[in-house]
Amino acid sequence: MWEIVAILEALGYTDRMIQSEFSCPNAFVLSQFIYAQRNEFPRSEIVNQQPIELTSKFREELEIFITQFSHSFIYTIPFIIQLILDYWPTDSSNDFLPPDLNYLFTIVTMASLITSSGFVQAIGRRGSFYMGLQDPIQANRICIPILWIGILTTILLSTFSIIFGFYQRIAVTTQA
Predict the structure, then answer these.
(1) What backbone torsions phi and psi does residue 42 show, to the nearest 5 degrees?
(2) What is the mean pLDDT of residues 114-123?
(3) Angstrom distances, CA of residue 53 to CA of 30, 46, 58
(4) Tell me: the pLDDT tens digits for 46-96?
(5) Of the candidates 6, 31, 27, the residue with the CA atom closest to the CA atom of residue 17
(6) What is the pTM for the complete model shown?
(7) Among 104-108, 126-130, 152-156, which is the least confidently predicted range?
(8) C-alpha of 29 from chain center
(9) Rounded to whole angstroms, what are the CA distances from 151 to 4, 46, 48, 111, 145?
(10) Which ranges of 11-53 does DSSP label H, i.e. alpha helix?
């Protein structure tokens, strides 16, 4: 039963979320309920299934790995581009970015990746949990508000960054 609690917590469920979504007081009570349902799905059906060929299993696992890797790797592309541009042999007259903007570009890229990846991960975890339960309506009910919060957060951070950039430009101009 503790394994079920660990899985629920690994999926990102807190006691408050469990209480609001499942009307259970905490993760332990929900895990007791899930554990009590184990007889509904007899293990013999799983054991008596036809054996899967090793090559098709390997191929499925490879496809899952490539999919998961590409989902994570996509977030590194802006950093790779920045690294290439930093080491690209140029003279100072044709730099891609002025040296004082390199740090700003890196900070903005990191903030963007943290924001988007955090919300994408939250949507992915919640969505796959409810889709695994074959409840797309609940998945929509949970994931759409997370999407809107992510969009709003990104817009607010972008607005703040633009205002900060204008302030920096005004401050540099008045000092000169």
Answers:
(1) -60, 140
(2) 81
(3) 36, 16, 9
(4) 555 555 555 667 888 888 888 877 777 776 777 777 777 767 766 655 556
(5) 27
(6) 0.46
(7) 104-108
(8) 28
(9) 33, 42, 47, 14, 10
(10) 15-22, 27-36, 43-47
